[in-house]
């Protein structure tokens, strides 16, 4: 008697669990990845010290009062527009290309005015920027 052999079928691979695992890994890596945003304006925070590092004449000091008006070199800038502020900074700097910038703002100054001053100095290529603060008289109490 002759027995007939059944043809062997190829084993079937179920891809559904593999796709599920890859999808879970993709979601995990997307959620766990941190995106670092680089700031366009680089700020050097001021440090408290008793030493005066530079002469007052060689520092661009931008004063911002409580209403958001700008003062450069003791003179008020005509208006609060960005281009006007940049022109006043250029006039103050003269032919100097690099100058440290100190922004002194009243604590009730509009946030927009401080950002506008930082933006103007950044657009003019001034990178050494600091924000002036007062040290508490009674040790922070």
From TrEMBL:
<dbReference type="GO" id="GO:0022857">
    <property type="term" value="F:transmembrane transporter activity"/>
</dbReference>
<feature type="transmembrane region" description="Helical">
    <location>
        <begin position="15"/>
        <end position="35"/>
    </location>
</feature>
<keyword id="KW-0653">Protein transport</keyword>
<keyword id="KW-0472">Membrane</keyword>
<keyword id="KW-0812">Transmembrane</keyword>
<dbReference type="InterPro" id="IPR003400">
    <property type="entry name" value="ExbD"/>
</dbReference>
<dbReference type="Pfam" id="PF02472">
    <property type="entry name" value="ExbD"/>
</dbReference>
<dbReference type="GO" id="GO:0015031">
    <property type="term" value="P:protein transport"/>
</dbReference>
<keyword id="KW-1003">Cell membrane</keyword>
<comment type="similarity">
    <text>Belongs to the ExbD/TolR family.</text>
</comment>
<keyword id="KW-0813">Transport</keyword>
<protein>
    <submittedName>
        <fullName>Biopolymer transport protein ExbD</fullName>
    </submittedName>
</protein>
<dbReference type="GO" id="GO:0005886">
    <property type="term" value="C:plasma membrane"/>
</dbReference>
<keyword id="KW-1133">Transmembrane helix</keyword>
